[in-house]
Specification:
40% helix, 250 residues, Rossmann fold, alpha/beta, globular, 8-stranded mixed beta sheet
């Protein structure tokens, strides 16, 4: 079964950046097979990884809804959807990518999330690692997109708002009985360690901080992917040092 890293946190804390950096470190380290899942409707994990998805789950569902005649005779709709979704997995350099996307029509993302959840249940046995880049806030948890994970990794910045959001995520995950082996907190774009007094009552194991990285900012502003980031970049080195606290090396 896959070792699942579910990433959550307040908007703007750098969840997608860290998801891309973790994908890069694990894939380059050849620790095992890896699936990166972009579970944010505002999908940009693929861009950060230098990989453009050709299909998304939301797009597949829209297409089937508009053209139900595409479903082969005698094949249940759910089975056809799962076939299409698995075919949409994009192969990268040492990792695969699955993108949730969003439906074009009105309505909530409940069905898209349900398809992603069912897909994950099938894919867990095919990979050693799965990284899930969730959308900002609490809604993805309330929809129970991630019913279980090896690690719930909450990303915060150094602000009081970021830490309050982290605490609310921890409380909600407990209320929803989302099963995790451990809950950890990582401070991003933070040049110094958070003080113990600021961490009391959060309910997470604080593992450290990732400093602000001007090279990451430069690449992001220029629209370049993080695959072009130098191995000596501050963010890469800091995250690699913390790797043993986040994922095991198979």
């Amino acid at each position: 079964m896959a070792y699942i890293i579910a990433i959550a946190g307040k908007g703007g804390t750098g969840k997608t950046t860290l998801s891309a950096l973790m994908t890069r470190i694990i894939s380059k380290g050849k620790f095992g097979s890896l699936l990166a899942i972009d579970a944010d409707p505002n999908s940009n994990l693929g861009e950060m990884l230098g990989l453009r998805p050709e299909e998304t789950i939301g797009g597949i569902l829209d297409d089937i809804a508009s053209h139900p005649d595409k479903i082969p005779s005698g094949m249940p709709k759910d089975r056809f959807i799962q076939y299409q979704v698995q075919a949409a997995i994009k192969e990268g350099d040492g990792f695969d990518l699955l993108t949730m996307g969003r439906p074009e029509g009105p309505g909530c993302y409940c069905y898209v999330n349900n398809v992603l959840r069912n897909t994950m249940a099938r894919l867990e046995k095919d990979y050693d690692y799965i990284i899930i880049d969730n959308e900002a806030g609490l809604e993805h948890l309330s929809r129970r997109m991630s019913r279980q994970a090896s690690v719930l990794l909450v990303v915060s910045d150094a602000t009081a708002q970021g830490l309050r959001a982290a605490r609310r995520i921890g409380v909600l995950a407990k209320e929803l009985n989302i099963k995790t082996q451990k809950n950890i907190l990582l401070a991003n774009c933070c040049d110094q360690d958070l003080g113990k007094s600021r961490l009391d009552g959060l309910g997470f194991e604080y593992i450290g901080n990732i400093p602000e990285d001007k090279e990451v900012a430069r690449l992001s502003l220029g629209g370049s992917s993080l695959k072009d980031l130098n191995e000596d970049a501050a963010s890469i080195k800091a995250l690699a040092r913390l790797g043993d606290k986040i994922w095991p090396k198979n």
